[in-house]
Automatic annotation (TrEMBL):
This is Adenylosuccinate synthetase. Its EC number is 6.3.4.4. InterPro entries: Adenylosuccin_syn_GTP-bd (IPR018220), Adenylosuccin_syn_Lys_AS (IPR033128), Adenylosuccinate_synth_dom1 (IPR042109), Adenylosuccinate_synth_dom2 (IPR042110), Adenylosuccinate_synth_dom3 (IPR042111), Adenylosuccinate_synthetase (IPR001114), P-loop_NTPase (IPR027417). The gene is purA. Plays an important role in the de novo pathway of purine nucleotide biosynthesis. Catalyzes the first committed step in the biosynthesis of AMP from IMP. Belongs to the adenylosuccinate synthetase family.
Length: 410
């Protein structure tokens, strides 16, 4: 397949980074099309752990390149730190990353604003505190700063002054850095990234190469956290479906495949509805076995059983053509496995919710299946077959560990 997208089919944390890193060796470009430093894509390269919050999960041992598209909000400091960490093991790797000058920057005051707003809410959303929501808010309200503004220092300084005055009017004396400090901060980061070899180039400039190359689009978070179709308002601030590839000049109609990544169970970080959440001791067992702690925040993830109605919903919203299942090994040794096959909503059984709002009213209807001792057992094969039949999609790959190559094609 020349062009594919890898998308989280649940509430994020499905293991997309590993899957992308596995596929990346066969693709020239890995393109992150949405989100910011609130994503945490964990990959293991020859036993060493890397957590990329912004960088596309390229394969350092191939000639794959990473592109950060205009659909993202980019924390330049976080990006520099990630590249510098990889430079230790892969000198010169910074030259393989390209940033769209149309992308908006996440600034220090966005992070402060993020936490100020969270503290004001009667019902906190559970934000990561990375400034993502405020950065996207500024983008939509035409108050964002784009990467290309770093090339004109006088205009950048004037724009920062205007925005700082606006934020002071809204929030008072709440920010630790004034506009002059942020200006110096940004210029230093610009120079730091350029020294690392990072390329500033837009999708139009690269389009000829894109059109002639193999492309792997890397999603962030999961469909159930999508701004438009997720469990609003407990969502992220960007597009989590495959339709976000439009920020790179493509559409889902041009994709040869959309791979939805699911865990053998379900997790969620932060507040919001979670129909299959388990509160019994089994949740603690799964959490510990699966190391279910946020790659970005370190917070323990909420744990529940596999939710097939939510996956059917995600399938429609993101045009999935295949599924990839991860962490089946985490459930090994359990006598029984529960699977949500439908919801009860307003007294009626429903296999697929029509809107995200229906999840707030959903009561899970479970089927109990036999457990397995290892992912090589027939019972695990039966579990995969059951998922395929219920969702009406093939499970094309099965991941059984954290390492990039711990994955089998079905």
């Amino acid at each position: 397949m020349k062009r594919i997208a890898v998308i989280g089919a649940q509430w994020g944390d499905e293991g997309k980074g590993k899957i992308v890193n596995y596929f990346a060796r066969n693709y020239r470009w890995v393109i992150r099309f949405s989100g910011g430093a609130n994503a945490g894509h964990t990959i293991y390269i020859k036993g060493k752990k890397y957590v990329n919050h912004l960088l596309p999960s390229i394969d350092p041992y191939s000639d794959s390149r990473g592109f950060l598209s205009s659909g993202m909000v980019i924390d330049l400091e976080e990006m520099a730190k990630e590249i510098e960490k990889m430079e230790v093991d892969f000198p010169g790797i910074g030259e393989r990353f390209y940033v769209d000058p149309e992308a908006v920057m996440t600034l220090p005051w966005h992070k402060e604003q993020d936490m100020l707003l969270e503290g004001m809410r009667e019902k906190p959303i559970g934000t990561t505190g990375k400034g993502i929501g405020p950065a996207y808010t500024d983008k939509v309200s035409r108050e964002g700063l784009k990467i290309y503004m770093l090339q004109d220092e006088s205009t950048l300084l004037e724009r920062l002054k205007e925005l700082y005055a606006l934020k002071r009017a809204l929030f008072g004396d709440k920010f630790s850095m004034d506009y002059k400090e942020i200006f110096e901060y940004l210029i230093k980061l610009r120079d730091r990234l350029l020294r690392l070899g990072v390329n500033i180039a837009g999708s139009i400039e690269l389009m000829e190469d894109f059109r002639e190359s193999t492309l792997l689009f890397e999603g962030a978070q999961g469909v159930m956290l999508d701004l438009d179709f997720g469990t609003y308002p407990f969502v992220t601030s960007s597009t989590c479906t495959a339709h976000g590839v439009i920020s790179s000049g493509f559409s889902t109609a041009e994709l040869d495949g959309v791979f939805g990544v699911i865990k053998a169970y379900t997790t969620r970080v932060g507040s919001g509805v979670f129909p299959t959440e388990e509160h019994a001791h089994i949740a603690d067992i799964i959490r510990e076995r699966g190391s279910e702690f946020g790659a970005t925040t370190g917070r323990p993830r909420r744990v529940g059983w596999l939710d097939l109605p939510a996956i059917r919903y995600a399938k429609v919203r993101s045009a999935f053509t295949h599924l990839i299942i991860t962490k089946g090994d985490v459930l090994s040794g359990l006598d029984e496995i529960k699977v949500c096959v439908a919801y009860e909503i307003d007294g009626k059984e429903k296999r697929t919710p029509f809107t995200s709002q229906e999840l707030f009213k959903a009561k899970p209807i479970y089927r109990t299946m036999k457990g397995w001792n290892s992912v090589k057992d027939k019972n695990f094969d039966d579990y995969i077959k059951f998922i395929e039949d219920e969702v009406e999609l093939p499970v094309s790959y099965v991941s059984y560990g954290p390492g990039t190559d711990e994955i089998n094609k079905k």
